[in-house]
Please model this.
Amino acid sequence: MRYLVLSDVHANLEALTAVLDASATQWDQVLVLGDLVGYGPDPNAVIERVRALPITAAVRGNHDKVASGLAPVDSFNHVARQAVEWTSGQLTRENLHWLAALPHGPVPVDAHTEICHGAPWDEDAYLFDERDVERERLSLSRPLCLFGHTHVPSIFRIETTVEAMLPVRGERCRVPLDNGSFLVNCGAVGQPRDGDPRAAFGLLDTEARALTIVRTPYDVGGTQAKILNAGLPAVLAQRLPLGR
Ligand code: ZN
Model:
């Protein structure tokens, strides 16, 4: 099966559209790793676009939880809080219910693959480096776990030790899925934070055991204008061209 891997779209419709255009014909099914909303100006349009895709597995992100009223806003910083409160006010009833019904991870995709938002042992944990993975790596139940949440494309190879195969750079980066288990973040569609402003996504071919992290440009200026028009914090527009 060929999968499109979407994570951290964050209500950025221009980025999502660019990813769907750039990846067309290269996948059959979709994996959704959470944070469809929050920060960006198009929560309903993004949810509706994603709902219409052939989804094999999906999990919720921390912004989805707060926006749909499942978790308190206390853990968010000032900017994230303003954005999520704005988002909650925008969501249609139907989209809010759909968002609230997303399961927490990990969710199995097949015998070899699972997905989660933060980490398989804690949906809200951030995996930035080897130490974050080392602590809990025994909880991996599949040889490949795809995660999101940090907005930074990363590859952790787990054998007797944990090796961070960093940095992930370039327009297409093939992940060498050889021996061992892998925790892979294919990056964020809607708010990349690795210094590359292009939207990031993954293409996984389970038969060929091939995973590629891909970058594609999108209309950043269009998203910025919508963020400002919506009255969302200006910093959310300013960070997009910087990829931070
Ligand atoms: Zn996120």
About this structure: The mean pLDDT is 95. The chain has eight helices and twelve strands. The domain at 2-242 is CATH 3.60.21.10 (Purple Acid Phosphatase; chain A, domain 2).
